[in-house]
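Case study: Outer membrane scaffolding protein for murein synthesis, MipA/OmpV family.
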Amino acid sequence: MMIMRKTVLYSACPLLALFASTARADDTPAVQNGVTVGIGGEYAPRYSGSDKQRVQVVPLIQARDNALFFDSQKGLGYDLQTDNGFYLEHTLGYALGRADRDSGWRDGAENLKGMGNIDATLNTALAVGWQATDWLVLESKATLPLTDSQGVQYQASLTLLPVQTTRDTLAFQSAALFGDSRYMNTFYGVSQKQSLRSGYARYHAEQGFYGIDNSLTWSHQFDAHWGTLLSANYTWLNDHAADSPIVLRRNEGSAVIAITYTF
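Here is what the predicted structure looks like once written out:
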């Protein structure tokens, strides 16, 4: 039997409409093609490490045609899946970067003045995963920037799907977060120039493991078209990130509620 992947829509990061792909066994041989759109409200930190939250409207878009797909978190991509549960996913996406002031469309806060902006960048991501059972998925993923040298982010995740019915899906995901030296110092480091402009002490962030991201998502389908989702997310930053002077809170939470329509 071919392993089919059902997508649970939810948002987990500021300023981005996110879709987290999970996997499940499907008794039908057909790929679940179609288009889903939606609108949601998100309560999340202004940036990773911020002590201030904001509420924002986020659009949700996802489309699939066999192995090809588009969604508003990952971008444009394709996935290859095998009968024994292994899959490969490759995407071309876009990251919005970070502003050094409050922003209405991407990460940023006033306390970052003098740190400079982190440019938006085109990126590519490669994920390899294994659906061990119909309720357990293991995945590793690397995200690399293409148009700006911001370093590489890695993550290893475990996803549990204890509830999977025709109307309801409950998914829990826990991901260990890693970054190379350039990535860590782009988002958590303070260079000499940044220190002089912002007043923050210099800080060199070590590469490697820097945090854990946990999410719990419930998706409910009212009928063949209308659905809703609720998502809660908790992120913990370890000392490599949390010791940065721009990190004001190492424990962060966010939440999303959204309504969706599938054509």
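For the exam, be able to explain this: The chain is about 5% helix and 55% strand.
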